[in-house]
Design brief:
The complex is a heterodimer of chains A (337) and B (478). Chain A has 337 residues and is α/β, with parallel strands linked by helices. Chain A has a single domain, classed as Rossmann fold (3-Layer(aba) Sandwich). Helices cover 47% and strands 8% of the residues of chain A. In chain A, strand 6 and strand 7 form a beta hairpin. The N and C termini of chain A lie far apart (96 Å). With 478 residues, chain B is mainly alpha-helical. Chain B contains 18 helices and no strands. In chain B, 42% of the residues are buried. At the A-B interface, helix 1 of A face helix 1, helix 9 and helix 18 of B.
């Protein structure tokens, strides 16, 4: 009898201890759970006020998500849109409103996401000037500059669908507050900086455009020494996406113009399958009767002084290029206002 | 399922609750739950290799019984060698086959014979080196009459596949783990909170120290020609911190997880960077592997007994095999060779047990001589780890040779001040806790409870803020 009582006592004591542990554990985690959602809201709210973090993308996303993008002409593309095409020149020349939505380091996948979000939250534009290049259909497994999505991700299914195709975020990052900020030291630092107004936060992108006042950086020569040439792997799903994007624009009566902005000529020779990709781009544009303005052989391409690297014009080059672009846009006969 | 993943954060509490709240009255059920969880855990990596794990388990279970039942030494030996051959054969095929064929082809071409040997496109089954060694130690112990074979297949399978140690150790011994599996585990509050604390410290080491160092190390080692000599030195030091944070962090999480389930695993690290000589370093680094090689290779070979040449031979064998165990690459063999060279003076002059106890035991600070000894031991370790990290011997040699240039006096590139601060704080906490099982085992034990809890929150906050880009655990590849 005594032995049984002892066993019961031990069992009860054991159970009490287990329960005690669970209660203490819950008490310990409760503040973390309680703080997670407000902290997420706070960080996201402050972070997206930053003009200069995440490659200057927040002002653009803010305008898109807040439905404040009412430009008649929008410019799509990667960094070759962002640093090459001046919307102010287009606005002034055609008496319209224009905005540059170029997204640094991303090809059609992310450009299309931006396009979808633009149409979802804003009035549709009349014309899209789309800067296309040999990377437009490239394979891109990693999510470059993933910080640009941080403040908008929580419970956003559109972003979830688009971004989970890349390596970078997990499904929980879209569902559980704060998780996606794990290890994002620079984003938290920026939030603190913005909250205490530690930097002037002057906008660097004017109507989404940012001319680069830089000189040739010599990186191309270094790369050339190391590598013979590079080959862009094409992603068949991107070509399909491009077709459906064109169809979508047609249906919505949005005019498309494709532009291949200048690239330094030696850099062009470095791209192994350039001719093949350019031919593909031309074929698609001809098939859909879309103007294709190519500046690959423009005299600008032959002079380093207009570039800061093999793929990007500097401010001097951009100023000259935009004059030519406006002239050629006019020739397309498309109405911009 | 990585220890630092969300899925593990869901998996572990479920196992914990089922283990202590539903199956706790029945030991058999508890073991079955752990076995099922372990196989599920392994299947999350690659379910295709479950059969290999099950086969290896079945093989050693069966041969263990056969060795015990054998009436004469010859039959015993036959069963032992059958098990050893199959175990090492599987390890050899999956891990070393391509290395051997490539090396053989290269050797033949060196003497002018051209040959084309078939190389296999095999995926290395995760944890194979670890569970093979579990099985080997078990059957060798039975052969040597140290233990009796385990009759209960579930208990034996759990010994081999217990999920905290399944993929990267510690390499357990049947004498240590099996009795715990067979005995009813009782829940103790102190043990469980201690387990959680150790997991937290392991996460800090892995996510903050190792993963942040890894970003720097990868950048430099992958493009070493672009960086100055001083940056090379810093990257080599950071790699040493990375591998320590990574592997000892993993071990802490494994030990802490097992402790949550009332099981004590073998300690794997004992503050190796506070070693005063290489012999001490090897008593403190990857202890479960070093002691495995000592017990099952070094001592059977004669150990430190016999002539001086025997000692030298045995030392080189154990270090070369240990290096080769890490991976099918000459870089690991050179790493092992270097460590054998380092330890040789202490073996020859019989000074390898000069530093048995923890440095500066009972004192706050080390004396000048101890500091000097620790720095030189650390320096030798850093140098050897360059081979461990490099992809080929050629790249290791070129990395080392680029250190000897004028830019060694330049300011190292890309150093993040916050990482340096974190490393210093890490170093201080490790030093402070060097006499315990892990650094924060008694950290703040004399503080009021509120301060201690605040420290845990601070640690979690630092992990949240500074967790580096997720990197796989280095030892998973072995």
């Amino acid at each position: 009898m005594q032995g049984r009582r002892k066993i019961l006592y031990i069992f009860n004591f054991d159970l009490i201890m287990r329960k005690k542990f669970i209660i203490h554990f819950l008490w310990f985690t409760l503040p973390i759970i309680a703080i997670a959602y407000p902290a997420d809201l706070f960080i996201s709210h402050i972070l997206k006020t930053s003009n200069n973090f995440a490659h200057f993308e927040y002002p653009i996303w803010n305008k898109i998500f807040e439905g404040k993008m009412d430009a008649k002409v929008v410019i799509y593309g990667s960094s070759r849109a962002w640093v090459h095409i001046d919307p102010q020149m287009i606005s002034d020349s055609f008496g319209t409103t224009a905005y540059n939505l170029g997204v640094d380091g991303h090809n059609l996948g992310l450009q299309y996401l931006r396009h979808q979000q633009l149409l979802k939250h804003n009035p549709k534009p009349k014309v899209i000037v789309h800067a296309i290049d040999i990377f437009t259909f490239g394979k891109q497994p990693d999510l470059y500059n993933s910080e640009q999505f941080l403040p908008y991700m929580l419970h956003n299914d559109d972003l979830k669908t688009a971004l989970l195709d890349y390596n970078g975020f997990r499904p929980v990052d879209f569902k559980i507050p704060l998780i996606r900020y794990l290890g994002r030291y620079s984003a938290i630092k920026e939030t603190i900086g913005q909250y205490f107004r530690l930097d002037p936060n002057l906008p660097e992108r004017i109507q989404g455009f940012q001319a680069q006042d830089k000189v040739w950086d010599g990186e191309f020569e270094k790369t050339k020494d190391k590598t013979k040439a590079f080959y862009v792997k094409l992603d068949a799903s991107k070509i399909q996406l491009f077709e459906s994007y064109i169809e979508d624009c047609k249906q919505k009566n949005i005019k498309l113009i494709f532009v291949q902005t200048p690239e330094y000529i030696e850099g062009q020779h470095f791209e192994k399958n350039r001719a093949e990709i350019v031919a593909l781009l031309k074929t698609i544009s001809q098939k859909h009767n879309i103007p294709f303005l190519s500046y690959s052989s423009d005299p600008l391409c032959y002079n380093k002084k207009y570039f800061y690297n093999a793929m990007h014009l500097n401010k001097t080059g951009t100023d000259l290029f935009n004059v030519k672009l406006v002239r050629d846009l006019r020739k397309t006969g498309i109405k911009f206002n | 399922m990585l220890f630092n993943s969300i899925s593990f954060a869901v998996f572990l509490p479920i196992v914990f609750l089922l283990y202590w709240f539903t199956t706790n009255r029945n030991l058999k059920l508890q073991n079955l739950l752990l076995l099922f969880s372990s196989y599920f855990f392994y299947a999350c990596w690659d379910y295709r290799f479950l059969f290999l794990l099950a086969f290896s388990t079945l093989l050693d279970y069966y041969t263990g019984i056969k060795i015990h039942q054998a009436t004469n030494t010859r039959t015993k030996k036959n069963w032992l060698w059958l098990s050893i051959s199959i175990n090492l054969g599987l390890l050899g095929i999956f891990k070393y086959y391509n290395f051997f064929t490539e090396s053989f082809t290269e050797a033949l071409s060196f003497i002018g014979i051209k040959s084309q040997m078939l190389s296999l496109n095999l995926i290395l089954p995760i944890g194979i080196s670890f569970y093979t060694f579990h099985g080997l130690s078990y059957i060798i112990d039975i052969y040597n009459n140290r233990i009796k074979p385990e009759k209960n297949f579930v208990d034996y399978s759990l010994f081999v596949s217990f999920f905290p140690l399944l993929v990267a150790g510690p390499i357990e011994r049947a004498t240590h783990l099996l009795p715990q599996i067979k005995k009813k585990r009782t829940f103790t509050y102190a043990n469980t909170t201690d387990g959680l604390r150790q997991i937290m410290w392991g996460l800090f080491k892995k996510l903050v120290i190792a993963d942040n160092c890894a970003e720097y190390v990868n950048a430099v080692f992958n493009n070493s020609a672009d960086y100055s000599a001083s940056t090379h030195i810093v990257a080599a030091i950071f790699f040493t911190f990375q591998i320590y944070g990574d592997f000892s962090g993993y071990s802490d999480i494994a030990l802490g997880t097992a402790r949550l389930l009332g099981i004590d695993l073998l300690r794997n690290f004992a503050f190796p960077f506070f070693s005063r000589d290489i012999a001490e370093f090897w008593r403190r680094w990857h202890i479960s592997l070093s002691s495995w090689f000592k017990d099952y290779l070094y001592i059977p070979l004669g150990g430190s007994k016999g002539s001086i040449w025997m000692k030298i031979r045995n030392t080189f064998i154990i270090f070369l095999v240990s290096g080769f165990w890490h991976g099918a690459n000459w870089t690991f063999i050179v790493w092992g060779f270097l460590n054998a060279l380092y330890i040789m003076p202490s073996i020859l002059f019989n000074t390898n047990r000069n530093n048995i106890y923890t440095v500066a035991s009972g004192r706050k600070f080390a004396n000048f001589k101890e500091i000097q000894q620790m720095i030189s031991t650390f320096g030798l370790t850093v140098f050897a780890f360059i081979f461990f990290r490099a992809d080929t011997i050629t790249s290791a040699v070129s990395y080392i040779s680029s250190i000897f240039s004028a830019s060694v006096f330049s300011i190292p590139e890309m150093i993040r001040p916050e990482l340096v601060i974190l490393l210093l704080a890490f170093f201080m906490i490790e030093w402070n806790g060097r006499e315990y099982h892990y650094a924060i085992e008694h950290f703040g034990s004399k503080w009021p409870r509120i301060m201690r809890i605040s420290f845990y929150y601070l640690l979690l906050f630092i992990i949240f803020l500074y967790a580096g880009t997720t990197q796989n655990f280095i030892y998973f590849q072995f």
